[in-house]
Amino acid sequence: MAKVKSKWVCTECGYETAGYLGKCPECGAWGTLVEEVQFALKPQVKDEFINKEKPELLKDIHIGEEVRVSTNIAEFDRILGGGLVQGSLVLIAGDPGIGKSTILLQTSGELCKNNKKVLYVSAEESASQLKLRAQRLLVNSDNLYVYPQTLMENIKTQIEEIMPDVVVVDSIQAIYSQNVASSAGSVSQIRECTNLLMHIAKSKNITIIVIGHVTKDGNIAGPKVLEHMVDTVIYFEGDKYKSYRMLRAMKNRFGNTSEVGIFEMCTDGLKCVTNPNELFLNERSQVAVPGSAIVVTNEGSRPLLVEIQALVGTTPYPSPRRVANGVDTSRVLQILAVLEKRVGLNLSKQDVYVNVMGGIDVYEPSADLGIALAVATCARDVVVDPQTVIIGEIGLSGEIHPVNNIEKRLNEAVMTGFKKAIIPYANKVTDNRIEIVPVKRLIDAITACVSAQ
Ligand SMILES: Nc1ncnc2c1ncn2[C@@H]1O[C@H](COP(=O)(O)OP(=O)(O)OP(=O)(O)O)[C@@H](O)[C@H]1O
Ligand SMILES: [Mg+2]
Q: Which atom of ligand 1 lies nearest, measured to the CA of 105?
């Protein structure tokens, strides 16, 4: 360990350079390059990486009986694609204080109830702090090991000694390995520790769940390669000022990534929300107001009813403001352009605000028609019938495109008590439980709303 080398690494993308640069040439971020001092180690092949196994024929590979392990938490299982896959590496990332440690301690408790041995590595909190949380969450188990430790090599030794079924590492930014000379949380440390954890998971068939911090932009702190290395990336989102939280899979090698899991934060931990529609619609005003429309988005395998609100008013500024919360701003701008060009709604002197109620994010294009109707009805000062749901994607020439899973969406609307649905013509179905209004063009949908007044 004679020569000390130093390199500069971008904390955003992992770009490496020999000297300091103000701007990262790879990702263009400013002031993100940090110095990492490295000791020139003699190159050596680590024992654990010497491959003693031989390639096998696919037909000869035997799958163990229990490939997936249920966490007993229905919403968590849903986003994992039916449970934790044995030997997988899962990354859960989220804002500070959102509840990452809470959900994983609860999950550990539930796994222990299924006779699984769990090792909870707490690199951020002491054993007594963890015990306090466990008491509050009513987690009490003989199979749950707690290990406050930050050195990766010690963690590895304990995993090999205890041989648990599941390991939780809280958090990847707080642990460090002796193989790398930079401090914990640095890009090289995160990469090295994840690499070691991945090797343990795959070679010993142990499921490892890792907690990750996020940067102020909401991305996982550390190199992008971290997300490539793990099998599943789950984001824990939610409005800090409200009690519900959402788990969303951004990558899953063993399941669908469009699922969301919805929880409510209570004193005794996170509780699954079985009927999210009540949660998102219960704050809705019972009196019909202009600029409100109910859309049915399809998040994974479950349709969700969400209220979209719009506010349109004359602007005091030279260029009007367009603000979108919970929906993509460029999508809203496109819908406004279609409303101006194809419907003749003049919005050039109007400020437009679009908001998805309940703090949920809607990424699906099937909400387009709902957004357009919320804006159009607010501009014309008419109301959308509060018993109507709106479904449809809008094309640039003002045509309404079909959406997937229309029966499921309509079924959810019926179950929640809606009486009428405006849907794309190409999706036309007959359902005697709900009045169906199929529309071909955006103007037809607006006419259907206005004529119903
Ligand atoms: N007594 C309590 N009653 C209700 N909710 C609580 C209580 N104590 C903590 N909480 C909730 O738990 C949250 C903290 O959860 P947790 O420590 O699991 O978050 P975290 O994501 O692990 O945070 P960090 O990034 O700091 O590790 C708090 O923000 C609060 O919402
Ligand atoms: Mg925590």
A: 18
